[in-house]
C-alpha cells in the first residue's frame, strides 16, 4: 500500500513506537515488524472488527491472560531430534506457554467476545502435555521426586546414606576439634566428596584421603578412611539419580516433540493476540473509533485529530480536522501561512488511512467515512542525495515522476509544497500541469503550496477545490483551523506590516509583486474576514421549538449550519446526536455521538462507550455541572477505584478532577491498583485528554497509585 519510508514521513513511526511499548513478547514484536497496511477492503474490515472487539473487552476491564508465555521456538528446535533432552527450565517454559494458550483460548471463546473467537480458533489445547510436564518438573526448574517410582526410591535411599555419612563425619570432626588439629568446625564438600578441614601440619593425625587444600596451603580437606565406603555409596546413588532424571527428561521431551506443530501454531496465535491487544490499548489511549468504511476511494474526515500529535502529548491543543474529498472532487489544494498546519492536515489523511489498513481505530467522529486505496504515494521533505547527484528539486521531480506513472483511481497522492525548489513561475506552471494529470487519472490528491496561481486554478477547475489553514491577524498566530472551499493567504505583507517592517521596502515589495498579485492576496484576506463575521453571527444560539407542527413543516428540509462533526438528530429515537445524557442514573454528563436501534455511542472525556438506550437518560442543560458552581459535599483528594469497571472508574475520576479544580486543590490521588493494567491505562488515557490536568505520574515504588496535578 505504501513504502516504509513514506509511512515514516506521515508519522506512522510514532504509532509503531507506541504499539511496541504495549507489547509483552518478542512474538508480538516480530508481527509488529512485519505489519503493513492492507489495501483489501474485506481484510481491513476484519482487522478493525477484531481490534474494536478487543477494545471493548479492555474498556470493560476484563482481564486478558497475556503475560505468562515465552518464545519457545528454540526449545522446539532442540527437541526435534529423536532422543533429544530439554532441561527442566526449558520444559517449564513450554508448559507455561501451553497454559497461556489454553487460557487465551478459553477467555476469547466466552460469550460476548464475538469475532475474537475466530482469532483463537486455531489454538490447540494441549492439556495432557501440560500435565505431563507439570508432573515431572516444578516451577523452579527442578525434576519432581514424584516423576517416577524409581526416582522416589533412589532419592529416599540417597537421603538416608547422606545423613548417615554426615553424622559419622560430624563425630570425627568433633574429635578433631577437641584434639586441636581441625582448621574449621564445619564440614565441607570437595570434588563431590564430604570432607573434614584439618590444619596442614596435622593431616597425619587422621587416616584418610586428601582431596584438596586451601589457597594458602594451611588447610587440607580430608576424607576419613572409615567413611570411604559410605562416600562411594552416596556417589553411586547420585549417578543413579542423574540417569533416572535424564530418562524422565527424554521421555517428557518426546511428548513435546509429538506436539511441536501444534505449539508453533499456538505461538503464532499468541503473537497475533499480543499485537492485537497492543492495538486495542493504543486505541483506548487515542479514544479511537472505527468510522464508516467504503470500498470506493474517498475521504470524509470529521473532527479528526492527528494520532502522531496525540501520542506526542499534544492532544489538548490539537484543533480537530474536518475535510472531505472524493466523488467529483478529486484534488484538494491547501494553502495558508508557514507553520499554519498545512502539512499536518495532509499527513493526517494518509496516517489515518494507514492505521485503518493496519486494523487500528482512529480518533475521529464515528460518522467519518474512509475509503480504500490500493496505494498511497507521499512526496514530503528534502530528498537531495550526494551519492546520486540529486539536488532538492531533482529529487522532487523524480518523486513526482513516479506519482505520474502510478496515478490511477485507486491511488492517494500526498505532495507537500508542490512546485518549490526552482523558479517560482516555472514551478507553479509545472505544479499546475501535474495536478491536471493527477485529476484526469482519477487519483485522489492532497497538496500544499504557497503558489497564488494554484489557488486561482483550483477555484476555476472542476474536480479541484481550495482549502486553507486559518490565521488570526490580530495575534499574528495560526489557529490551525482548516477551512475547505476557501483559499488561504500567506499573509507575508500583513505580518511584515504589523511588525513595523520598513514601509518603503514593503511598498516596493508590493510593487514588485504586481497589482494582480496584491489584489488576490487582499481579496483572500477580505473573504476570510467576511466569512469569520458571518460565522460569528450564525453561532448565536437558536431556541429549539418542540412543537410537532414545526418539526414537520415544509421548511424543515432547508439546510442548517451545524458545528463540524455534529450530525443531524436521528428521526426515529427519543435521543439525538449531540444530546447530553447520564448513564445508569449517574451525574456525569456524556454526549451522544451516534444512535442505533437499541444502543447509543456516547463520549465521556476522551473515552467512548457503546451503551444500551435503556441505561441512559437525558440531562437538561440547566442541570449540567458548570465550572465553578459544583455543589460539593465532603471534599475528597483521593479515591480508590479498584474493583470498579472502567466506565464506573472513569466517572469517579472525572468527578474527582472537577471537584479538585473547583476547590483549587493542587493535586489529587487515584488508587487503581496494578492488575492487568487495563484500568490504569484507561484512566491515564482520560487524564491525558483532560483540560484540567496539568500532569500526572505513577511512582515506581507504588505503580498502583496515580498522582494528578490540577491546572
Write a structural description.
About 45% of the residues lie in helices and about 15% in strands. By secondary structure, the protein is α/β, with parallel strands linked by helices. The strands form 5 sheets. Strands 10-11-12-8-13-14 form a 6-stranded mixed β-sheet, sandwiched between helices. The chain has a 5-stranded antiparallel β-sheet with strand order 18-17-16-15-19. A 4-stranded antiparallel β-sheet has the order 1-2-4-3. Strand 22 (about 695-700) and strand 23 form a beta hairpin. The two termini are about 45 Å apart. The model is unreliable at about 385-390, about 515-520, about 540-570 and about 620-635 (pLDDT under 50).
Write a short abstract of this structure.
With 711 residues, this protein is α/β, with parallel strands linked by helices. The chain is 45% helix and 17% strand. The strands form five sheets. The chain has a six-stranded mixed beta sheet, with helices on both faces.
Amino acid at each position: 500500500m505504501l513504502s516504509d519510508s513514506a509511512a515514516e514521513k506521515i508519522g506512522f513511526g510514532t504509532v509503531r513506537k507506541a504499539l511496541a511499548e504495549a507489547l509483552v513478547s518478542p512474538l508480538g514484536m516480530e508481527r509488529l515488524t512485519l505489519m503493513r497496511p492492507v489495501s483489501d477492503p474485506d481484510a481491513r474490515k476484519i482487522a478493525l472488527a477484531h481490534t474494536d472487539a478487543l477494545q471493548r473487552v479492555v474498556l470493560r476491564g476484563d482481564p486478558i491472560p497475556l503475560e505468562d508465555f515465552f518464545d519457545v521456538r528454540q526449545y522446539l528446535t532442540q527437541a526435534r531430534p529423536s532422543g533429544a533432552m530439554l532441561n527442566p527450565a526449558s520444559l517449564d517454559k513450554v508448559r507455561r506457554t501451553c497454559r497461556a494458550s489454553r487460557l487465551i483460548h478459553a477467555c476469547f471463546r466466552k460469550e460476548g467476545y464475538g469475532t475474537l473467537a475466530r482469532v483463537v480458533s486455531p489454538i490447540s489445547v494441549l492439556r495432557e502435555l501440560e500435565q505431563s510436564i507439570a508432573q515431572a518438573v516444578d516451577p523452579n526448574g527442578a525434576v519432581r521426586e514424584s516423576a517416577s517410582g524409581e526416582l522416589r526410591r533412589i532419592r529416599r535411599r540417597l537421603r538416608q546414606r547422606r545423613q548417615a555419612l554426615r553424622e559419622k563425619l560430624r563425630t570425627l570432626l568433633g574429635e578433631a576439634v577437641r584434639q586441636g588439629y581441625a582448621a574449621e568446625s564445619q564440614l565441607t564438600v570437595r570434588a563431590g566428596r564430604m570432607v573434614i578441614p584439618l590444619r596442614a601440619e596435622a593431616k597425619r593425625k587422621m587416616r584418610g584421603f586428601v582431596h584438596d587444600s586451601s589457597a594458602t596451603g594451611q588447610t587440607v580437606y580430608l576424607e576419613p578412611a572409615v567413611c570411604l565406603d559410605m562416600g562411594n555409596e552416596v556417589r553411586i546413588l547420585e549417578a543413579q539419580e542423574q540417569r533416572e532424571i535424564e530418562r524422565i527428561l527424554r521421555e517428557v521431551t518426546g511428548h513435546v516433540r509429538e506436539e511441536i506443530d501444534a505449539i508453533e501454531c499456538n505461538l503464532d496465535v499468541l503473537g497475533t493476540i499480543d499485537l492485537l491487544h497492543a492495538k486495542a490499548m493504543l486505541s483506548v489511549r487515542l479514544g479511537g473509533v472505527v468510522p464508516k468504511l467504503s470500498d470506493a476511494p474517498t475521504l470524509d474526515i470529521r473532527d479528526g485529530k492527528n494520532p502522531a500529535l496525540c501520542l506526542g502529548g499534544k492532544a489538548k491543543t490539537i484543533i480537530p480536522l474536518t475535510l472531505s474529498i472524493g466523488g467529483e472532487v478529486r484534488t484538494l489544494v491547501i494553502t495558508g501561512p508557514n507553520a499554519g498546519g498545512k502539512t499536518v492536515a495532509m499527513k493526517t489523511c494518509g496516517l489515518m488511512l494507514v492505521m485503518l489498513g493496519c486494523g487500528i481505530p482512529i480518533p475521529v467522529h464515528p460518522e467519518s467515512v474512509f475509503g480504500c486505496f490500493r496505494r498511497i504515494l507521499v512526496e514530503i521533505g528534502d530528498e537531495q542525495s550526494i551519492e546520486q547527484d540529486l539536488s532538492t528539486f531533482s529529487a522532487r521531480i523524480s518523486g513526482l515522476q513516479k506519482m505520474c506513472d502510478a496515478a490511477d483511481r485507486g491511488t492517494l497522492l500526498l505532495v507537500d509544497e508542490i512546485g518549490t525548489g526552482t523558479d517560482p513561475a516555472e514551478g507553479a506552471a509545472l505544479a499546475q500541469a501535474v495536478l491536471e494529470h493527477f485529476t484526469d487519472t482519477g487519483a485522489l490528491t492532497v497538496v500544499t503550496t504557497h503558489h497564488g496561481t494554484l489557488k486561482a486554478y483550483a477555484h476555476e477547475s472542476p474536480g479541484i477545490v481550495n482549502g486553507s489553514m486559518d490565521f488570526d491577524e490580530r495575534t499574528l498566530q495560526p489557529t490551525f483551523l482548516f477551512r475547505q472551499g476557501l483559499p488561504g493567504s500567506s499573509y507575508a505583507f500583513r505580518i511584515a506590516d504589523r511588525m513595523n517592517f520598513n514601509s518603503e521596502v514593503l511598498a516596493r515589495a508590493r510593487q514588485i509583486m504586481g497589482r494582480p498579485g496584491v489584489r488576490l492576496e487582499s481579496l483572500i484576506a477580505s473573504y476570510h474576514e467576511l466569512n469569520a463575521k458571518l460565522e460569528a453571527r450564525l453561532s448565536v444560539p437558536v431556541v429549539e421549538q418542540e412543537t410537532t407542527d414545526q418539526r414537520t413543516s415544509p421548511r424543515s428540509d432547508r439546510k442548517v449550519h451545524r458545528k463540524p462533526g455534529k450530525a443531524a438528530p436521528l428521526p426515529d429515537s427519543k435521543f439525538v446526536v449531540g444530546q447530553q445524557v447520564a448513564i445508569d442514573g449517574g451525574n456525569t454528563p456524556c454526549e451522544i455521538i451516534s444512535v442505533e436501534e437499541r444502543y447509543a455511542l456516547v463520549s465521556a472525556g476522551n473515552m467512548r462507550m457503546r451503551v444500551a438506550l435503556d441505561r441512559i437518560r437525558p440531562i437538561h442543560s440547566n442541570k449540567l455541572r458548570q465550572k465553578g458552581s459544583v455543589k460539593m459535599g465532603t471534599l475528597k483528594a483521593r479515591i480508590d477505584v479498584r474493583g470498579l469497571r472502567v466506565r464506573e472508574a472513569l466517572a469517579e475520576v472525572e468527578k474527582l478532577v472537577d471537584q479538585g479544580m473547583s476547590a483549587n486543590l493542587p493535586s489529587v490521588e487515584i488508587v487503581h491498583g496494578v492488575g492487568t493494567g487495563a484500568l490504569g491505562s484507561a484512566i491515564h488515557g482520560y487524564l491525558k485528554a483532560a483540560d484540567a490536568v496539568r500532569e500526572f505520574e505513577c511512582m515506581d515504588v507504588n505503580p498502583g497509585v496515580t498522582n494528578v496535578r490540577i491546572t
